[in-house]
Every structure is written in C-alpha cells, then in structure tokens.
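Posting here for the record, re: pyridoxal-5'-phosphate.
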Amino acid sequence: MSYVFHRTALGGLPVAASGQGAEIIDTEGRRYIDACGGAAVSCLGHGEPRVLEAIQRQLSTLDYAHSSFFTTEGAEELAEHLCAATPLPLEKVYYVCSGSEAVETAVKMARQYHVERGEPQRRVLISRHQSYHGNTLGALSFGGNPGRQKPYAPLLLEQRKIEPCFDYRYRQAEETPEEYGQRAANLLEAEILAAGPDTVMAFLAETVVGATSGAVEAAPGYFRRIREICDKYGVLLILDEVMCGAGRTGRFLACEEEGVAPDLVTLAKGLGGGFQPVAAVMCTSAIHETFAKGSGSFVHGHTYSAHPVACAAALAVQKVIRDDRLMDNVTARGADLAARLGARFGNHAHVGDIRGRGLLQAIELVEDRAGKTPFDPSLRIGARIKREAMDLGLLVYPGAGTVDGTCGDHILLAPPYNIDAQMVGEIVDRLGDAVDRAI
Ligand code: PLP
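Prediction output follows.
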C-alpha cells in the first residue's frame, strides 16, 4: 500500500535506497547501472563528495532568499561560470527549477522582447513535430509528442509545427545529408511565410532531439540555415538544450558544434546533475538590454527561482566538470559507446538505427529493418526492454514509437560523464541481453 500517486498507477516500483558512482541500489540490495541518469540527469553519477560538501556549506549559511529581494553570491558566480563555459555570445542567465519552466520562460522572454520593441503583433511560435519541451501545459503545447498531448488536447495552445530534421526517417535516397539539411530547414521559411512573417516571434527546437525520437542530431548545415532564416525575418531562435546541453554531447552547448548561436538557450538536467532541481535560460545581452531600456522588468518569476542551494549545487557540478576535464571524457567514452553499440547491434534484425552525439546515444527498434517499419506501438517494445534491463541491473530510458509510423520505439542511453570504458562495455552487454529477452 502506497500513499504516493506514482506515474504508474499499477505499483511495483522498487525502492531506491542509495546511489554510488554510476549505480543506484534498492532496498533489496539490488544494484542498477544508471546508464540513462534517470532522464539524462545524473551527469556525475551519484554521491559526488565535492557537490555534497557545497550543498551542506550553502545550507549552513543561507537556506533561502527570494529572488525579488536579493541576489546571492552563488547565483552570480554560477551565471559567470556558465557564460564563460561557452564561446557563444550568451551573457545573461535566468534561473528556474525545471526544464519545462525554462522552456516556458524562454518563450515568454521572446514574447516580451518583441512587445518591448514595439512589435506586439509577433505572437506566433513555430516548433517541431517529434519534439519534447516539457509536461506543463505551455511546454506540452510547444512539443510534438501526440501520445503525451492526447488527453489534454482541449487545454493546449494552438501551435504551428514543422517536420523535424531526422535523417533516418525523412532523408530521401537521392539527397546528400547536406541537401537534406537545407530542405528540412527551408520548411521553416515556408511556415513563417504561411503565418505572416511579421507575426512570428520565435522558432523553438532541441539541438539534439532527446526524449521523443531518441538522440537525433540535425543534418550538417541545418541549424546554420535555420539561423539565416530567423535573421531574415526577425524571428528569435530558441534552442532547447535541457537534455543535450551542459556538456552531454562533449561541448558545453551542443549548438557550438553546429556553429550556430541561439538568442536563447535552455539548460536543466546536466546543470545540477540531479543534486538539486535547477534549470536556466541563457540569452544574449541584446535581449536583456531591450528589457533594461524598455519597461525595466521581465513580468515573470517563480518562488524558487535562483534558489541558493540549487545554485550552489549547480556551481559545484559545473566546477567538477571543468576541473576533471569531463567533456573530454564525454567525447572519448561517447565514441566508445557508439562503437560498441555498432558492434553489438549493427546487424541486429530489429535495430534500425544507432545514433547520437557524445554520451547521448540511442538505438531505434524496428519490426523490419529494410522497410524501417516500427513495431506496433501497442507492443510497447521500449517499455519491455526497460523492464528486462532492470531485471538485469541496468537502467535505460525507453521512448515509445508513434502511431503514424514516423518514429519507432527507441532506447536512450545517457550515462555519467565520468564513466570508464569497462562500464561502457558492461552497459552494452546488458542492453544486448535485455533486447534479446524482450523481442
Ligand atoms: N526540454 C527537453 C529537451 C527535455 O528533454 C525535457 C525533459 O525531458 C524538458 C524540456 C522538460 O524538463 P523537465 O522534465 O525538467 O520539466
């Protein structure tokens, strides 16, 4: 009997008791390799002493101060650290507690920016199908995951959406990846023209798509063309790096790899590494100046924005990433992980695609490789693999396929940045066994 309203109403969850490095241990003493960091959260694994010490130090000096009355040294230092961590011109940081809040904050910031500039008619947001931006009603509206949206459809905001850039599913045989990237990006221009260019405020996309289709990178040149289109029509570019940012792909921001600077970028999971709920929006100084020279305030804020303990935890996490040069390890172990997944699943009858960047990697499951036919979603292949993997002491993050067949079930891997080569091998071995047991 549990009084907790869990995600699953069917019960049966094991009770997590402790965490050590890359493992979670339950109250029965079973150990699970946390190969997905929950939902790509635990970037340092569990129990990192330098982070625990920073949290304890902060708690013993100041537990809480409301961000409309005070700033704190931790909030200031973390913002400076984040701005220095990327070569891109992002010079202001707004704190919130979750990825959904970060996305909604970025969209509201984009909207108010246009209002401050005297363009209140800019109110259309364009985002993409097969995306995930969070579960609150605004963020759920912006996302493109029909399964998650269906019961709430009457409550959601109407949105314009374009097809994602998804090579495995949408590139035509005669196209090079570069040609495909241009074609996919040009869909944005067509959508802006259809909406009326002076009504569009922003385009929102995940740089590397996480939860909905599983570690999907854009084709080369896609985001550069997107940037050009946004600039041409005065549309702000919001990149959602809640999952792929903060070092997960081997760069602080995944968009550094594309050579593209967004106007706003969201961060969450790897920012605090799960030690505290913390998220952020980074934006250009041009956006901030517009507020400063305009009304002087952003009409927004949450009770726990810039929570001192959350900022202290995130700062400690980011310092560990810097001091231990963990982004180099993400690149090296990410290459290992991709190679091992290729060796184990490259010829697997039911693995259609292996993809990802850094330590965000996925396999897509298909009924038939040649036709790329997804499994019937009612078979819940991803969820079955997750269950088998847990039985084998491995945590992986499943994604469900879409009913219309535009994406199959997939399994997402996002192990800690400090993982070693042996653990990478163990993850792939156990995942291989779980897939064979499930299908
Ligand atoms: N945006 C992206 C890209 C995500 O992957 C997620 C969560 O998975 C979110 C937003 C929502 O974050 P949260 O669950 O912290 O609200």
